[in-house]
Amino acid sequence: MPGDPGASHADAWHALADYLAQAGPPVLFGLPGDDLAALAAVDSRGLRLVLCRDQRNAVFMATGYALGSGGPGVCVIGKGPAVANAVTGLVEARASGAPVVLVAGGTAVDRRGSGAFQELDQLALVSPAVKWAHRVDHPDRVAPALERAFLVAASDPRGPVYLELPDHLIGAPVPRARPWLPATAVARARATSPVRGAALTALRSSRRPVVLVGGGMRHRNPDGVVERFAERIGAAVFTTASGRGAVAEDHPLFCGLSGLYTPPGTEELWREADLVVAVGSRLEETATTGWDRPDRPVLQVDVDPASLSTDHPGPRVVGDGADVLAAWVAEVDRPPDRSWRTAVERCRAAARGHAEQVRGAPPEGDRPRVVDVLAAIDEVLPPDRVLVQENGLQDMWSYFYPHYTCRSAGGCIAPSEQTTLGFGAAAAAGARLAAPDRPVVAFVGDGAFNLFRSDLATLDREGIGVLYVVLRNGGYGWLHAQLDRHRLDPARHGFASDAPDAGGAGSHFPVTDRTGLVDAVRRGYRVTARGGVAVVHVDVRLADRHPALDNLIGDFPAHVAQC
């Protein structure tokens, strides 16, 4: 810009810190490389870096932050095995459409091919899991690469990017000829005219429509355009697992999740629907399990043509879901079919009746049932809570409406179709930092929790108040020793402590019978309200799973007998 002389930064990591201080999120996650150059740069600008014990958890946290805030999640790590360990997180972020920026170290250009310490072809490793992967080899290219990384991550279709800053950029001055241009400054063109043709014809002729909302509509329904569209055409509303939280589940047209998680009592809607309007969904296998009408048209709307499924008949529209639905609200000029609205109301009542029947069944023994645990969460935590889900056998009860309802004031973060074990447990930390004024509860199994548990002390140290409801069937000395050399504060950066962590950080509340359940959840919630981390361990029976999953064979959802 005219009048701005630009700037020079001490090195690439200081350039990144300056960009984040002016245009990025207020918090980032990671485990920096042994040289601690990234940590020193972050400290120089007063940024908050949540130091994690595991790079995998760090990327999960950044993903949770991105999904919760709608903005970028940033993760900073070292090189070699650090990057390899982060790939699992990138796979989950890519499938979730999360705008995560992973910045890693790398082997210096003059050492490549020499057997250098932790040398690895990192670009080849991460490229299949990200939208864009790039290595910066010259200081002059650092500033443009930073801007591009955040722009690509935040642009539709959103997803993770990888940026490598090799070792030879440490200590090399980085010039910048103009002010930073953040990704938020890039204007997005909106639809100026409605989509007509076959899509509008299908809408006008449908009498029994279903609207299916996918994860692509997250943060794209702030004014309730999905609900207004459903009311205009008289459609039943379902979401995919990753689309949960995009619509209000206490809306009178909402009927639950689709496919594998179809609530008992609502199958009639899928059998009788004459049109499915899928918005922001890739129509993944779990979302379409049980669809026994291969001839039924599916009207797909997605901003990314590569996300449109070609396995279903029906019109396909490339465009922003919110814009397209808003235009169609004014274009559909027929009244909704009253008999179909009656069917929707009847099926919703049947789903509620089935849930009440399950809740009212005599328990076996004194152990809490999973439905009791969900009821306790609903009783204790306020309606604006954010539920972060895993995808284990028993915590999947939370996917079946109305055993759990994500209310209009609340939110939800679920794993993608990859269902990476431990994602939800770690992502809950990012979700809480994205919404610091709202309670966050992670509903997880003990297997997922144990994968994450090394970073429980991280949340405790950082004051990230997450409530973990777990269905139950130490430190880094080398990095800590480098702090003095870099004149960094060991009290702020807790790589190690005098009391080695044994996975017992936080406040723990064991529950072995139903009588203590609500009190334990209430006590845990009070801890998190003060910024502490609380874990409610609930002993449950291994056989306590949703009946819809009884016929699950192996790990292939298509084998579930349903509908």
UniProtKB/TrEMBL annotation:
Keywords: Thiamine pyrophosphate. InterPro entries: DHS-like_NAD/FAD-binding_dom, THDP-binding, Thiamin_PyroP_enz_cen_dom, Thiamin_PyroP_enz_TPP-bd_dom, TPP_enz, TPP_enzyme_TPP-bd. Residues 198-327 form the Thiamine pyrophosphate enzyme central domain. Residues 400-487 form the Thiamine pyrophosphate enzyme TPP-binding domain. Pfam families: TPP_enzyme_C (PF02775), TPP_enzyme_M (PF00205), TPP_enzyme_N (PF02776). Transmembrane segments: none annotated. Residues 14-125 form the Thiamine pyrophosphate enzyme N-terminal TPP-binding domain. SUPFAM superfamilies: DHS-like NAD/FAD-binding domain (SSF52467), Thiamin diphosphate-binding fold (THDP-binding) (SSF52518). CDD domains: TPP_enzymes (cd00568), TPP_PYR_POX_like (cd07035). Belongs to the TPP enzyme family. This is Thiamine pyrophosphate-binding protein. It comes from Saccharothrix xinjiangensis.
